[in-house]
Amino acid sequence: MMEIEFIRRWDSEKTEYSNWGGFVQKEIETKLQEKFNLDTGYFLKVPSMPRVKETSSLIEKAFHRGKDYENPYDDITDKVGVRFVVLLSTDIQKINRVVEDSEYWQWSRDRDFEKEREDKPELFDYQSVHYIVTSTPEAALANGTFSAHLPCEVQIRTLMQHAYSELTHDAIYKPKTAATPIAKRYCARAMALIETADECFLGVMKQLEVVNKPIVDAMKMLEQKYKDIVGSEPDCSKFNSFILDEFVDKINDALDGRLDDFLKERPFVIANIKKRAVDDFIYRQPVVLFIYLLAYLEPRQTKIRWPLTEAEIQPILDDLGIASEF
């Protein structure tokens, strides 16, 4: 294939590749939300957007880098790509599962940094997971703006790996750049520190998971109870964790049963929650059930330790017939 033929074909198919990249991005983000209940706006540390290669970059790669492609147009599989940047290496595994479970593409791993570390444990170099995902007929039929058998590169990195890549991609490892041995040594040291920092961060996360387990378990219980008793979907904002953290010493194995008994004896609590939930943020949160129980069991301490304004807890005290002065 001559350069002019390559360019003509690319110009005619560029939009199709862009549509395919957009489909891959949206599908991965949707499945992350569904499988892991993730807020992708928080989970992904850099916005993921499909990127279509510039024509000049494709021509350089196809004809002027000594790659010796047998069929340069079809052999170049990163004409469109999507990058996902996460915080920790364990987060990469979630995206791996989504990529490998989809019915809309066939996949192959182009790079796997964990495998590379096993093969060359003494080497500290660029790290990332690269997939090539190729559209299936099912994907083409579902979308209608691209055909089957289109490749898209999916890159998955941690935030620190991304920073390393941004620094070194063009400045160090491109053939046109003659990086000094000292510069390359600095890069290797930086990657070693990145691996160490990731391990330390994972250790921190494991410790936090242990400490936060009572709050996480209580939140799941309260969310389900709110759905069952109030009969509507609650909001689950960070306000819930904020309140549970303030009163974490009151969370125990008996909480579920005590809350059930409390609500059965006081049906007016649920009625008031339903009425106020229409226009009051607090009453749309599952933790409001916990607040009612605390206010009933220990009104004085609950009021003293209440982390927000008195006006926000006073209606709950009033519902329970607890005087504003005790």
Task: Please give a structural write-up.
Strands 1-2-5-4-3 form a 5-stranded mixed β-sheet. Residues 120-125 have low confidence and may be disordered. The protein is an alpha+beta fold. It contains 15 helices and 5 strands. The protein has helices spanning 3-36, 40-43, 55-63, 72-75, 89-101, 113-119, 137-143, 159-168, 181-230, 238-246, 255-265, 267-276, 287-297, 299-305, 310-319; strands at residues 51-52, 80-86, 105-112, 129-135, 151-158. The protein has 2 domains: 3-179, Beta Polymerase, domain 2, CATH 3.30.460.10; 213-319, no CATH class. Helices cover 60% and strands 10% of the residues.
Mean of the pLDDT scores? 88
Give the oligomer, counting copies of the same chain as homo and different chains as hetero.
single chain
**What's the CATH H-level homologous superfamily of the largest domain?**
Beta Polymerase, domain 2
Proportion of residues in β-strands: 5-15%
Distance between the termini: 88 Å
Helix count?
A: 15
Instruction: Give the biggest sheet.
Output: 5 strands, mixed
Q: Helix proportion of residues, in percent? A: 55-70%
Map the helices and strands.
Elements lengths: L2 H34 L3 H4 L7 E2 L2 H9 L8 H4 L4 E7 L2 H13 L3 E8 H7 L9 E7 L1 H7 L7 E8 H10 L12 H50 L7 H9 L8 H11 L1 H10 L10 H11 L1 H7 L4 H10 L7
Parallel strand pairs: 2-5
Antiparallel strand pairs: 1-2, 3-4, 4-5
Helix pairs in contact: 1-5, 8-9, 9-10, 10-13, 13-14
